[in-house]
Amino acid sequence: MKTYLLAVLACAIALPIAWELNAPSSCFLLAAMVSSLYGGRGPGYVTILISSILFDFFFLLPRFHFLHSGESFLRLVVFIAAMVLATALIAARRRAEESLRQTQAKLAQATQTATMSQFSASVIHEISQPLSAMVANGQACIRWLAVDPPNIAHAKGAVERIVRDGKDAGEIIKGLRTLFRRSPPKKEPVDLRHIVNEVVSLLRGRVVKEKVMVEVNLPKDLPTVIGDRIQLQQVLMNLVLNAMDSMQTVTDRPKALAIRSTEQEGMVLTEISDQGVGIANFDKVFETFFTTKEDGMGMGLSICKSIIEAHEGRLWGSPGPVAGTVFTFAIPSSTEGAEAE
């Protein structure tokens, strides 16, 4: 309803201006464009109808009549045609933008799913560890309670370990649910330290299997950022997985992965550096469908860049100081956003 009130208001504003400037075509066309841009196709066509009536009654000769000569009638037809065309073009642009947003969302979901498949084995390993420990401690508890007299102290310790392992498994499952959850982006204060710890925890199994040394350097006073936690987790997961993939064939140096965060001039910078094979062309690496992997889709880094830019930040890559690659993304801190307000 409010969008249709916008159409009426646009015509009400356009009429006196058109009368004063004697420029009805321009003023009413502008009113139709505003209604279409901010209200949609329906309010745009309502504006065309109202504008046509006002144009006919107030500006065609003789004025204040609805019946005119053939020349005036032709002028009215041209006026309506121009407004309909402008409204249709704007509506088409809105549909194209909406289609683009939906496509980007689907691509992001597809990349998210593809990313998950790469570390599914690590996740299974991580979940199986606490579950196996819970079974072992449960059996130990039964044995301690079965002796005569029951060893309550040892049984209590076994139960406490079961609770601890259950919490560990719950945290892993919670991390997986957030990665797979399909919900609209939610901007809120986000602690990047928690996201980094979650990603490292999820990939712990693969890190051990591939003998990757992981260094995490996150200051305790690192400010929070305003953003969508799931999307930022997706970005970090993709960058870390790419770093690990780049070191799979490395044999002449240690496989080292470093994640560091710092604050610089109101921005929180996060670096993911590796000792992998490196990247030859940093200009193309963020292009859609460009990939250096045999089984890659070429969408991961492109979507990561779009996500970071949607957070008013920047993502870039550079060669490592000795070998490998350093990917860095910078996002405004929440304190910087509060000062701007």
Short description:
62% of the residues lie in helices and 12% in strands.
Explain how this protein is built.
The chain has helices spanning 2-21, 24-39, 41-58, 70-118, 120-146, 152-180, 192-202, 204-209, 229-246, 300-310, 334-340, and strands at 188-190, 213-217, 225-227, 256-264, 267-274, 314-319, 325-332. Helix 2 packs parallel to helix 4 (70-118). With 341 residues, it is of the alpha+beta class. The strands form two sheets. Strands 2-4-5-7-6 form a five-stranded mixed β-sheet. A two-stranded antiparallel sheet has the order 1-3. Residues 337-341 have low confidence and may be disordered. 62% of the residues lie in helices and 12% in strands.
Descriptive keywords:
alpha+beta, two-stranded antiparallel sheet, 11 helices, elongated
Structural class by secondary-structure content? alpha+beta
Largest sheet: 5 strands, mixed
Strand coverage percent: 5-15%
Mean pLDDT: 80
**Whole-Å distance between the termini?**
31 Å
Strand order of the main beta sheet, please?
2-4-5-7-6
What's the order of the H and E elements? HHHHHHEHHEEHEEHEEH
pLDDT below 50 for ≥5 consecutive residues: which ranges?
337-341
How many strand elements?
7
Inertia-based shape: elongated
List the helices and strands and how they pair.
Elements: H1 2-21, H2 24-39, H3 41-58, H4 70-118, H5 120-146, H6 152-180, E1 188-190, H7 192-202, H8 204-209, E2 213-217, E3 225-227, H9 229-246, E4 256-264, E5 267-274, H10 300-310, E6 314-319, E7 325-332, H11 334-340
